[in-house]
Amino acid sequence: MKVSCLQMNMKLGNPDDNFSKAKQLIAKAMKENPDVLVLPETWNTGFFPKDNLADLSCGNSVEVKETIGSLAREYGVNIVAGSVSNVRENRVYNTACVFDRRGECVAQYDKTHLFTPMGEDTYFTKGNHLCRFTLDGVRCSVIICYDLRFPELIRTLALSGLDMLFVVSQWPETRTFHLHTLTTARAIENQMYVVCCNSCGVADDTVFGGNSVIINPLGDILAKAGETEQIITSECDMGVISEIRENIPVFRDRREDLYRI
Fold first, then answer.
1. Do residues 209 and 179 lie in contact, with contact meaning Cβ atoms separated by under 8 Å?
2. For residue 156, which of 133, 134, 223, 261 sits 20 to 30 Å off, Cα-Cα?
3. Paired sense of beta strands 164-168 and 193-197, if any
4. Distance linking the first and last C-alpha atoms of the chain
5. Per residue in 33-91, pLDDT tens?
6. Residues belonging to the active site
């Protein structure tokens, strides 16, 4: 499976420009003929305009489904469409949508862990469900930014059967080391591919760090971005997963009788 991350520099509070930019990046990324495209977190509004967030947000993900879903169908590619600020039932959610090659929305996920240090919990509503889906026969899930710091979430997903985890984020430059460490740890401990698509650029006083990365189940970096807008691509050999899990059988050797999660 060939995966491309679209490390995007979006404009805070300008969804029209951001939708246009996303379409341009998708068209550019298709030159590599990937199987999956990945966008970052809240790419429609940036992270995040507080004064008029609801007015700038998508309505029930309609704009994403119409625009990105149609591009997935046009190009015949799977798209993990990052996440968008999204109004549903008069509440704002941080919502990820996933589209298959036919443009069908095969999964939706609302961010479950909201980043309280930046007041995300004041403006957004927490999600209440996990997300699993299949792309080209590969068992996948998506989480959003701060979710990465909660290993119990990812292990719960992994125990249900998972081969690839997509992380879409607006991770700040000041904590890039944490992003590298946590994505690598999640790949190694769960013996799966981790694909992290981060944003870049500046929103208000926050510098977002880029450094999107594709990591294999051994923790090896297959592709890594810098700090500016760019696209990274890598082939992911799904055949290595069973061999790794057989040689280091962490799932078989778990002591469920001792764990309290």
1. yes
2. 223
3. parallel
4. 33
5. 999 999 999 999 999 999 999 999 999 999 999 999 999 999 999 999 999 999 999 99
6. 41, 111, 145
The distance between the two most distant Cα atoms of the chain, rounded to a whole number of Å, is 53
Residue with tokens 């691509």: 233
Q: Which residue is associated with the tokens 């169908």?
A: 73
Name the percent of the chain lying above pLDDT 90. 99
Distance between CA 35 and CA 114 in Å, rounded? 30
Which helix (H) or strand (E) covers residue 122, if one does? helix 120-123
Q: What is the distance between the alpha carbons of residues 212 and 224, in angstroms, rounded to a whole number?
A: 6
Tell me how far apart the alpha carbons of residues 7 and 125 are, in angstroms, rounded to a whole number. 26
Q: Which residue has the tokens 């650029």?
A: 201
Please give the structure tokens belonging to residue 216. Answer: 């294999």
